[in-house]
Amino acid sequence: MSFIVVATANKHKVDEYKKLLGDIEVDLKSLADFPNFPEVEENGKSFKENASIKAVAASKYCQAPAFADDSGLEVEALDGRPGIYSSRYAATDGERIAKLLSELEGKENRRARFVCAIAIAFNGEVLETFEGTVEGTITLAPRGDGGFGYDPVFQPDGYDQTFGELPAEVKNSISHRARAFASAVEFVEDELSLLGDTF
Ligand code: IMP
């Protein structure tokens, strides 16, 4: 059976991808299925560059079409930080949230957006990249324990609850990852049949 690899071992992300793939008949593997996959240095200057670096490496190593995402939080009052450094902003989710809230203390502008870039690669070459965003505000304190990362302090526009409080189905229908993925899905459906003979 054909398979496609998502270049992450993050279980939350894999679960989101599984739900997003919905009816598409393809076996989804992750880096958890390739435990010896070597660490890749994410030294790109944009979400798209970092996603491409990971997808290319995974497609070569796993000998299959691979997609990778790179995502993060851009906060207006912090000139777009933490941005591509969102995971490296502090050591744990709790510390990242605490640092963010302290940097925003006293600031009126709490506008922020999650950004997700997805790259699809095959045989070590990027086939296509996609980007999705979701706009919202940073709350004054964390609310809810759903999701992961900055979810408890991100309230998407049009909702009274944070991503940490909203049901997973709601987050998965409006998130940056869902939006980037929606554009990627059509491409995968079309291209997978073409790639199908080659792996
Ligand atoms: P990466 O895409 O694995 O490099 O992770 C980017 C960082 O952005 C993660 O450490 C998360 O903290 C944060 N992030 C990305 N997507 C989300 C999301 O959907 N919710 C909350 N935080 C996220």
Main attributes?
199 residues; alpha/beta; six-stranded mixed sheet; 5 helices; 6 strands; globular; binds inosinic acid
Number of strands: 6
Ligands bound here? Answer: inosinic acid
Q: Could you list the spans in which at least 5 consecutive residues all have pLDDT below 50?
A: none
- Taking all residues together, what is the mean pLDDT? 91
Query: Could you give the order of the helices and strands?
Result: EHEHEHEEEHH
* Main sheet record: 6 strands, mixed
Main structural class: alpha/beta
Residue share in helix: 25-40%
Q: How many alpha or pi helices?
A: 5
* Rg, Cα atoms, Å: 17 Å
Cα-to-Cα separation, first versus last residue: 9 Å
Query: Major sheet: order of its strands?
Result: 2-1-3-4-5-6
Description:
This protein has 199 residues and is α/β, with parallel strands linked by helices. The chain has 5 helices and 6 strands, in the order E-H-E-H-E-H-E-E-E-H-H. It has a 6-stranded mixed β-sheet. Helix 4 packs across helix 5. The longest helix has 20 residues, at 176-195. It is globular. The structure holds inosinic acid. Inosinic acid binds next to strand 3.
